[in-house]
Design a protein that fits this description.
12 strands; alpha/beta; Rossmann fold; two-stranded antiparallel ribbon; single chain; globular; ten-stranded mixed sheet
């Protein structure tokens, strides 16, 4: 009997291994097929700039970082722009110096790190961390408001960003964390230790902001922030990112180098990559895994009690990051420290109501635990789906009573939801805005592009330009941030 049981177990093990090998072979075969049939890699995919690594960044000051950034930008010029093939010298290529979207020729190249100083002595210090494939452009509207309110602001270009998509080919997330530490050091240097410190993070930058804060709880050499402002924070990512490393395995062979890329697309955006290497997805997953492990460890030892208040803004529907992870992995663990989460619901007007997925219609009810909660929750919703205007429904921490604030803002009639990328941009943003202002010119108005027409006419898929890229409720976000600045928490120990 025992011999028969062993035989059955051996057969099941062999069968399981054969199935696993078959699945892996199919997966890798698909990736190889994509490498053979997809768009070819261009110079901006193949060139990998030489950035400072984490160890070098931790030794650097701000001037050293800016000098290294200058060298990287010069490398892009000599190794990509100056060597473009004639077929690549077109208006839609941001690496062609004759293009209207060529960053160095614009009024300001927002791919670079920057500092904004107030007119008088700084009333606070704020650090701004952009998202994956993004640049410091993404948080400039919020940074400008901090500066107007008297704060010294530091926005750093994270390694691998703002140059060429190939910059993300072999970057590692500890390099990003080191850049956060450098930006905080510079902010404290500019404003001093006797004023509040805020860290504002968008998407992947939100994960890095929280990761730094948890590290600062353990390391007295790191300045503790007094508040976090998180916009679409990457607390969790999609399931694909878990296996992104496997997706790039065929690229071990030079013939299949294309397999190291999830997307190879034209680069027409002056301040954001359209192409995306497998390593970018892998590093974002590793960041979230490290962050979640830190959250769990601090929860076990009671360390989360020392966290500063967190104000986060999140769309209920987000294709890039996990909204449930923001709530369950982060907010449900927070102490009663004055934190608040702001959720933006869909447009439930009669125009879109019948077309919404059933799961979308009940998203907030499914995602949010019943009150009382240790954090405040605001849901920006349409109480009567008639498209007359949204209402901010707030349930303060520790209560189950709702307070309503009419915003006097409605969704545009042809917009059914926000998106991951929309939240930090006002409607009049010159690049991403639905109604771009004319006071700045960045060569293209991506947010105002109409997508009605015939297939095959555009150099990109319609999906890539139909995603909502600006936020009609951005004034409300600024209002909430201003309120947070006006009611400072007790200063953290520096």
């Amino acid at each position: 009997m025992l011999r028969r049981l062993r035989s059955i177990l051996s057969w099941l093990l062999i069968r399981g291994l054969l199935i696993l090998v078959l699945v892996l072979a199919v997966f890798l075969g698909t990736r190889i097929w994509e490498a053979e049939t997809g768009a070819p890699l261009q110079a901006w995919h193949k060139f990998v700039p030489e950035e400072l690594d984490a160890e070098a960044i931790d030794r650097a000051d701000w001037e050293t970082w800016l000098a290294a950034e200058d060298r990287v930008m010069a490398e892009v010029r000599t190794q990509v722009t100056d060597k473009l093939e004639p077929s690549d010298r077109i208006a839609a290529n941001r690496y062609f110096e004759g293009s209207p979207v060529y960053p160095p020729s614009l009024a300001r190249d927002w791919n670079r790190s920057y500092v904004l100083l107030p007119d008088g002595p700084p009333r606070g210090a704020a650090v701004f961390l952009h998202g994956l494939t993004d640049s410091p452009y993404s948080l400039r509207h919020i940074a400008r408001r901090y500066r107007e309110l008297g704060w010294a602001t530091v926005a750093i270009r994270l390694p691998g960003h703002g140059t060429v998509p190939g910059g993300l080919y072999d970057v590692e997330w500890p390099d990003w964390s080191a850049a956060v530490r450098l930006a905080v050091r510079e902010a404290i240097h500019l404003a001093g230790e006797a004023v509040p410190l805020h860290i504002v993070g968008f998407s992947n930058g939100g994960a890095l902001a929280l990761k730094y804060t948890l590290e600062a709880l353990d390391d007295p050499a790191l300045a503790r922030p007094d508040r976090l402002i998180l916009v679409s924070p990457m607390i969790g990512v999609t399931e694909f990112a878990r296996f992104a490393g496997l997706a790039g395995l065929p690229a071990f062979f030079p013939r299949f180098a294309r397999a190291a890329w999830i997307a190879v697309l034209p680069e027409f955006n002056p301040f954001k990559y359209n192409s995306f290497p497998v390593n970018g997805a892998r590093q974002s997953h590793l960041v979230t895994m490290a962050l979640q492990a830190e959250l769990a460890r601090h929860e076990r030892n009671g360390g989360l009690e020392a966290l500063p208040p967190i104000l986060a803004f999140q769309s209920v529907i987000d294709f890039t990051v996990s909204t449930p992870a923001v709530i369950r992995t982060l907010y449900d663990r927070l102490p009663a420290n004055g934190s608040e989460l702001v959720l933006f619901d869909l447009n439930r007007s009669a125009r879109f109501g019948p077309l919404l997925r059933p799961a979308a219609a009940t998203a907030i009810d499914r995602l949010v635990p019943a009150p009382p909660r240790r954090y405040g929750l605001t849901a920006v919703v349409d109480p009567a789906p008639l498209g007359d205007g949204m209402v901010a429904v707030t349930v303060p921490a520790g209560t189950d009573e709702a307070e309503e604030q009419p915003l006097g803002i409605a969704y545009p009639t042809d917009v059914f939801s926000l998106s991951h990328v929309a939240l930090p941009f006002p409607l009049d943003d010159p690049l991403y805005g639905l109604e771009p202002a004319g006071n700045e010119d960045y060569g293209v108005n991506l947010g105002a592009t109409a997508v009605r027409g015939e297939r095959g006419a555009l150099i990109v898929s319609i999906d890539s330009v139909s995603r909502m890229s600006s936020n009609p409720f951005f004034p409300y976000i600024l209002e909430r941030i201003e309120a947070a600045i006006a009611t400072p928490a007790p200063l953290a120990v520096r």
